[in-house]
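This week, work through this protein record:
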Amino acid sequence: MKLRNKVNRMTIIMTLTLALLLSAAVTLLIQNYAEEQVRKAGRIVVDMATVGLLHSMHEGMESSSDPEQVRNNIKVLFEELANIPGLIEMRALRGESVDRQYGMVESRGEIEPVEKIMLETGKITEEISLNANGIKVFHYNGPLIARTTEEGLNCMSCHDASEGEVLGGLSVQMDMSAEQNAVYSAIYQLLGLLLLVSISFTFAVRRTFMPMVDVVGQITSAFGKARKGDFSERILHTSNDEVGEISHHTNHLMESLDNHVGAIARDIEGLTGKSFINDDIEPMQHVANVVHNLTSAVRFKEEIEADRNLDEVYQHFQRILVNQFGIDKFAIYEMSSKKHESVPVLISGLPDGFTNWCSEEVLGDSEVCRAKRSVRAVDSRKDQGICPPFCSTRKETCENMRHICLPELNSEGDGVVLQIIFYQEEEKEIEGKVSLLEYYLRVAAPEIEAKRLMRSLKETTLRDPLTGLYNRRFLEDFKSSLEASVKRRGESVAVLMCDIDLFKQVNDKRGHASGDKVLIKTASILREAVRANDLIVRYGGEEIVVILVNADEDRSLEVAERIRSNIESYVMQDEKGTFGITISIGLAMYPENGEHLSGCMALADSALYKAKESGRNQVVRYQNGE
């Protein structure tokens, strides 16, 4: 309900309530006063009749008059009193003792209940009621008690009664029509006066409160428009009281919002790349939400700066996607322009039977990725076939799915692509998250780039530049963590010390370029022979260490023999023609053959030495006690 209507309703209710209360109170007072006046008049009539009646009886006693004369005198008295204005009826009532002494009067009429109570109790009784003619009547009854007065009147001298006995009484009925009319007249006059007072009161209340109501209405309108981004409305009220101060401060606030919030909204629109003019959400709430989200994004940037490596950054990003954005199907790909590959570093929400959201072609060639190639967001909501590699092998499973790929790449094409996947019915919900996700990517990009560079530099120091294998420094750093992992899991590790046979002769006879080719090809054959989680380390010169993780002796011997055989069967070629090479391998098991990995490496080296002495091109397993 509007405030104006509330004030009007309150004024009417207050006025009516006050008028009704005053009317009821004054009416009651007037009515009580009128009844009291009638009651007094009835009492006076009864008192006058009583005095006259006693006087007639006293005269009859002194003059020894005939009792009939006394009754006539009383009748004359009653006839004279009957002329009193408002007197309807007055009659004398006999008690039982008088009826016994003088006999009952046939014409006395029926005794009413209120009269009977007076004769029985000897107490005054009265009531107000409507008679048969519909006239409001005051009925007053006063008893006549047998007694001896100071003037010498002795009731017992004429009546066979004892002192205090009820001889009879006087009954008076007074017409209350005049008093009732007077009450009605007074009430009408009162109502007229109250109407005038109510009108004056209503006018005074409205004159006092309506300016405030008008100001509140204008403030409500101003803030209603402000919620929609319009801060132009002003309060048109000036006064020297608190209402005027409210108007002034409200106008100042609207002016400040008009000057500053609009600029903030434009800046946010430029930052997020999204306008909120037509959004369902209120602009002020939208600004607050965006500022909160931007603050969260900046806090996210500060948090990932403290992450030690890229893996922690990506895990951090995964928590943001799941917990803050409510996205459970996504992938993050690292793009490399030099290697021309895209590596999925995070994948979530894959359907059963899927290994990736995109085809293997994208992983092998980053240029197949449309987002990487165009450096623009790829959105399948409007064109589901815009990116053929998405779910390319099982299109029917992804029929109701849509995806958006958001690239964040540097000028050389290195960086990451965030791919979010959602169902068609989730499009509207995702729409409000895309711009903020892009901002998160932008603020995270410098840190991701820095940590990628650090990782690249670290890999450079830990890898052999010729073969791409880990170097001896990496092995020294990795040994302690590998030992702890093996002990914790109760696994075994095989150490293969490999040495290319007669490698010095290749360098001396065919040149160092051919020697480099031998090392590169040997490294390639080794990679093909082992699993991805096994380690290959160029230990020095032509010596290479292979560490087979979680492998038993039989499997380790099988892998070692496969390496030896594959190298023996491969035909090398250089400018001088074709040639072949062989390799000798020594094998030891950790922790079976030694408490520490370094000791097992020494034992494997000892087995390698035995393989060399035994004619090369063979695998020798270290035996305890050798």
Observations:
- The radius of gyration is 60 Å.
- The mean pLDDT is 82.
- The CA atoms of residues 123 and 398 lie 107 Å apart.
